[in-house]
Amino acid sequence: MALLLNQYSPKLFIRKPVLVRASSGSSSSPVQTPPCVVLGADPCGADHVLLRFAYATRNFPKLIKKAPVELVYNDAEVTTVGSSHGWVASLMHDVGTLSLHDDLNPVASDANPKRISLPPLVTVPYCQTQIITNVSLSSLSPEEKDCVVAVKFMGPQLSYCRPSAQGNSKWFNIRIANPSFFSSRVIFSKKHNMFRIPASGGQLIASWNLCKDEHTPKIQVLRYHNLPELSEAEREVMDTCFTTQHLVESQSTGETILVKCFRQTVDGGASSKIKAVMVFKVSPMGNAFYTRHIGDLTIFISKSEPFCVRASSFPGVSPNEVYILDIDEIVLVRLDDSAISTFAYRVVAPYFFPPQNIEY
Is 71 helix (H, G, I), strand (E, B) or coil? Predict the structure, then answer.
């Protein structure tokens, strides 16, 4: 995490990124950028800003690119509501429509940015479509033929559509009955080919095969094992925290990982701080094993869809760690000893971008 902060400097310059292979030892593997984040933005004309990127790896050239100002500095009309696979979703409040943008993607073209407008949202009775927990794509790009975009709203509504349907694209809405899923976030599991949501508290995982328009979820009950023994002081702190759950799927190992973040409210409830993180490996049978060892993996959690990478593929990324990005803090959790390092920092775009493939 210190690598990210150390890269924040006014002496940035534009140049073609140095690239790395997605996995070592395979000449046919795609060339990729390291995980990155937008740390700052400077005015550039009336309606654009210059983005300052930082990368979670050593000796990577700093990059500046241009983006519309509304994607970084939200206003009453347009708000960014999530990110998946390097695409950022924005909500136009006055007309109730979502758009997908590649402007914040570090390898996307400045000259020809892509914007995909989705049909107007349809609100399920007694639900709302103004507060969105997150957005998830089933493919690397919404331009792919079979891509499904899923949107999880605060409350019981889950909606999805197929952008490639062009004039026939429309939203399909699902009402979630169990209130324990109302504040949770959705991810797409490539392993299961399903969209999945962990319940509040992490006792359940619901899965929908929206690629086949199946609206009835499969429910998996989790059973926890190897829970750590906490001291009285640790219990007192955790009793004052609220918990958020994040599902992460490793493409390299096929593992499903559940990360529980324990947050404590501060400043009279205006914000919250990470106080503890617990990681569990989830088996296909629903057994969740607490662990401090995820091997060569590094997990990235932010307002975008969470992901993990092989640390050895990206020099400078430390294995067995969890990086957490929020609007006012950057957190590094070292799993082997549960050490937490927190950096107070106002992030203009609280999204970790996963490695991006380079097309020549």
Answer: helix
